[in-house]
């Protein structure tokens, strides 16, 4: 552990009242000293120039009753999309739940689950456990262009199809291979799969959705697929049902026996071309659009190969029919499909013709999220109720800024009918960050509070610091900002209409990912940095937030040097956590690449055994897997650890490595 002491303000300043905070002044950057302890530092920046939130109104959605309205709306959007240069918009997929539990009736030892954001909401991942078996996704090796027509895609040169590899795993750190199963041919790119009762549910499509979220051609000629697989006999896996939808997958979630799919679709009308400065081409496009019918503009669906008519969608699609939307239209449909896994043939679907670039979901609601372009810095969200028989539109909310580009899935959460967001806006060559609380009431959204405000004026982050990591819990918001050093802010949100900052702890470096261990214990994973902000090593920190106003880092570890990397910094599935039942213990593992000045990379996994009471402590282990790893980024990013009691089962490329926690060198390896 390396400690970085800072000059601390008097303890009275840690407990400033709301009135006192009006008169707070900026505290200069601290210098490194020679003491061996870190102290809490209350960094207060009043930020009088922070732009106040503007009242944008709400671009609410209206359910159409006439299919001709939807037809005209889509045609207007297509005409505009093909005649204007599409603005660049980036997509970041929002995430879900974080839980690790023990099923005492099924297994004799505790087991870990997929690391998620929202408790009780499962996420698709490449490794799942079910009934003493570990199921591992094998990605296909296939060559295909990003955009292609149906006939071209069918002729793509596929080398190896996607498949699922099966192993029996045991708490004594042994395992046994059981075979593999090839997935549906439409699952060229697999987002991941779920485990439910005696089935696996693979979710994906023909391509990975990374680019061109506002480009109409991107959402054409795609296919979303869900394949259910019967694994009651792991040695003889049998196919179940298959659902396909025209378009591309945005994301999916599972709550109990219900799966939610969010997909996007743009009509592909033959002959449409970009016509930015070509009047003749515009006339040809207008003729093609005039001849098109509503059925040409809607996605098709199949269940077990049987076509399902999309006519109901035309009667029930939601459109933003206010302001500029009325004339402009929109060219892409977002489709919400709700599947009862106990009765999958009776799935329901809703659609919204509105821009989105991500989702958030808890057990009760789905949010469609639209981030701003570079000019307007305006965002909106649309909430759909999932407690009814089919997804039901609730309300929309507009706000300044965006959820940011770094792990935005952690910046939004609904709890006890209060929506909390941490937003960022780039104004006047500076980053402005806000915490927004919005009440979810029976008749719609109602804004409760925005921080900073007149009563709580201190800004979130020092000048020119961007948000690096966020973790929202039931009663607090933890926010990391960084330019040269790392303030970790804690905001009390127990009273949603009066949030206030309780802590601002500063140290060198920053955390990109904040992992909740208990209500008061947090792990930060990021980078150490010098006083100029240059990253020098991976950094793992253990924070104790049990006393308001006295947040502190109790341990800091540094690993490797410049060029070191941990996939969990951008994909929380890469971390495995397990709260030990009936003991104050939490175990954690995540893969890393360690380097020195970008050279001599070594790949392995970090293991942390955390004692949570009476005071937080930890023990760390470095388990090397591959020396001189070179640029083996993909293998490390796809690596997953699974805990079965004291056993660690590590998926590393096409190899399963099992070892006891107490003796990582006693490894059993199987390659397939």
UniProtKB/TrEMBL annotation:
Residues 1-20 form the signal peptide. Keywords: Signal. The keyword Signal applies. PROSITE patterns: PROKAR_LIPOPROTEIN (PS51257). The keyword Signal applies. It holds the Pfam family Beta_propel. InterPro entries: Beta_propeller_containing. This is Beta-propeller domain-containing protein. It comes from Saccharospirillum mangrovi.
């Amino acid at each position: 552990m390396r400690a970085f002491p800072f000059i601390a303000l008097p303890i009275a300043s840690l407990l400033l009242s709301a009135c006192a905070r009006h008169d707070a002044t900026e505290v200069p950057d601290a210098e490194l000293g020679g003491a061996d302890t870190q102290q809490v530092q209350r960094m207060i920046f009043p930020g009088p120039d922070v732009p106040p939130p503007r009242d944008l109104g709400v671009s609410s959605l209206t359910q159409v009753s006439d299919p001709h309205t939807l037809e005209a709306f889509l045609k207007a959007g297509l005409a505009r999309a093909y005649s204007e240069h599409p603005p660049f918009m980036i997509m970041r997929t929002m995430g879900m739940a974080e839980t690790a539990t023990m099923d005492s009736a099924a297994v004799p030892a505790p087991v870990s689950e997929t690391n998620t954001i929202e408790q009780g909401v499962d996420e698709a991942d490449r490794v799942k456990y079910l009934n003493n078996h570990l199921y591992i996704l094998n990605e296909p090796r296939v060559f295909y262009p990003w955009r292609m027509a149906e006939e071209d895609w069918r002729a793509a040169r596929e080398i190896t199809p996607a498949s699922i590899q099966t192993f029996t795993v045991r708490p004594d750190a042994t395992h046994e291979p059981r075979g593999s199963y090839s997935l549906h041919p439409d699952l060229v790119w697999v987002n991941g799969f779920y485990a439910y009762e005696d089935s696996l549910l693979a979710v994906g499509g023909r391509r990975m959705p990374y680019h061109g979220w506002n480009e109409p051609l991107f959402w054409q000629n795609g296919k979303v697929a869900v394949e259910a697989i019967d694994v009651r006999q792991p040695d003889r896996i049998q196919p179940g049902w298959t659902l396909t939808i025209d378009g591309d997958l945005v994301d999916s979630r599972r709550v109990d026996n219900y799966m939610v799919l969010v997909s996007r679709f743009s009509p592909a009308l033959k002959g449409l071309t970009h016509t930015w400065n070509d009047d003749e081409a515009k006339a040809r496009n207008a003729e093609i659009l005039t001849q098109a019918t509503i059925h040409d503009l809607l996605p098709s669906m199949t269940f077990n190969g049987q076509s399902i008519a999309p006519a109901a969608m035309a009667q029930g699609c939601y459109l933003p029919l206010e302001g500029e939307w009325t004339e402009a239209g929109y060219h892409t449909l977002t489709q919400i499909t709700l599947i009862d896994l106990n009765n999958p043939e009776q799935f329901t679907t809703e659609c919204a013709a509105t821009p989105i670039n991500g989702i958030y979901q808890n057990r009760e609601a789905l949010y469609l999220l639209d981030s701003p372009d570079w000019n307007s810095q305006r965002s909106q969200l649309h909430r759909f109720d999932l407690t009814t028989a089919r997804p039901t539109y609730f309300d929309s909310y507009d706000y300044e800024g965006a959820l940011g580009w770094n792990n935005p899935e952690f910046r939004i959460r609904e709890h006890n009918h209060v929506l909390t967001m941490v937003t960022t806006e780039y104004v006047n060559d500076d980053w402005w960050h806000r915490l927004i609380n919005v009440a979810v009431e029976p008749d719609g959204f109602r804004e409760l509070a925005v921080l900073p405000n007149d009563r709580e004026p201190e800004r979130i982050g020092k000048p020119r610091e961007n948000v690096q990591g966020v973790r929202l819990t039931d009663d607090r918001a933890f926010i990391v900002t960084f330019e040269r050093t790392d303030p970790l802010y804690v905001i009390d949100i127990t009273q949603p209409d009066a949030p206030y900052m309780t802590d601002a702890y500063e140290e060198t470096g920053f955390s990109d990912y904040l992992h909740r261990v208990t209500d008061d214990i947090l792990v930060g994973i990021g980078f150490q940095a010098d006083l100029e902000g240059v990253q020098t090593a991976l950094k793992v920190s253990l924070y104790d937030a049990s006393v308001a106003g006295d947040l502190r880092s109790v341990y800091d570890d540094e690993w490797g040097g410049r060029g070191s990397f941990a996939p969990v910094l951008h994909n929380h599935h890469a971390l495995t956590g397990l709260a030990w039942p009936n003991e104050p213990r939490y175990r954690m593992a995540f893969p890393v690449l360690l380097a020195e000045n970008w050279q001599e990379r070594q790949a392995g996994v970090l293991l942390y055994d955390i004692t949570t009471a009476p005071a937080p402590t930890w023990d760390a282990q470095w388990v090397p897997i591959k020396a001189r790893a070179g640029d083996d980024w993909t293998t490390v990013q796809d690596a997953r650890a699974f805990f079965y009691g004291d056993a660690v089962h590590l998926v590393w490329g096409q190899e399963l490595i099992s070892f006891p926690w107490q003796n990582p060198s006693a490894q059993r390896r199987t390659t397939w």
